[in-house]
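Dear support,

We are seeing what looks like truncated structure output for some complexes. This example has two components. We would appreciate it if you could run it in full and send us the complete C-alpha cell output so we can diff it against ours.
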Amino acid sequence: MEVPILKQGPYLIASIQSALNDADLRFLRDNLVERVGKMRARGVIVDVTALDVMDSYASRTLRDIAHMTRLRGAETVIVGIQPEVAFAMVQLGLTLEGVATALDLEEGLEFLTRKARAAARETAERAS
Amino acid sequence: MPPEEAVAVLEERIAILSDSDVVRARQVGRSLAASIGFSQTDQALIATAISELARNIVLYARLGEVVVDALRDGSRRGMLVVARDEGPGIQDVERALEAGFSTSGGLGLGLPGVRRLMDDMKVESKRGRGTTITARKWLR
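Here is the complete output from our reference environment:
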C-alpha cells in the first residue's frame, strides 16, 4: 500500500490512507527522505489520522523519518494521532520523544510555517 | 487463572508468516474485540497488543500463529489472544518481562508493554521448542 506524497509549497504531505505493514513503512521512510532532497522541501507532514494502531515498529519508523529528514534540512511533524491510539502508545511506552506532533493537518502546517518564520527571523538578525 | 470457557465459534486463527500477517492478525483481532463489545479504546489496546505479539513471531521465530477467541466466565465476557511459535524460545522469561529488556535492539518494551495493554499475560517458553503467550482482557 503506497502512501501518496503531495507537495504543497515548501512542504511534503504524506497521507497514510490505510494500515501499513513494515515494508510499506520502510518504503515511506526512504521515499520521504529522498524526496526532501529532490523537491527541496523544508518541512514534512505525515498524516496518520487513518491509522487505528501505532505499534512499536510504526512508532520507531516515524521517529526515524523525523530524525532523518531533519538531517536533510527539513522539519517533520506527525499529525492526526487518534485519542485511543495515543492511549495505546502511552501504555506501550511509545512517546515519540523528540518528534513534533500536531492535532491535524491544519495545525501541522501552522507549526511548520511558524518554524520557517522563526528561522527566517534568526537569519535576518544574524545578518544585521 | 480462573476457569473460563472459550466460545469456540468465534475463534479465529491467523498464520503468521510475514509482516503482512501482522497487520491481518490485528485487524481480525480488532473486529472480534468490537463484536464482543469492547470500547474503541480497548479495541485499540487489544489490536496493538496483537501487533506486538505477532511481530515478535516474525522477528524471532519467523513463523507461528495468533489465535483470538471470545471468553466467558460466568457473566464476565472477555477476549483471549494466544501467540504461538516453534522458534528458539525465550532464554530468560523473567528478564524478558522486565521493562527495558530486548534482545533485538528494539525499543526494549515488547512484553512488559503488551502486559500493560492487556489484563493478564502468561508466557510459556522452552529453549529450542518455542513460545506460547496467552493474554486476556475482560469487558468492564
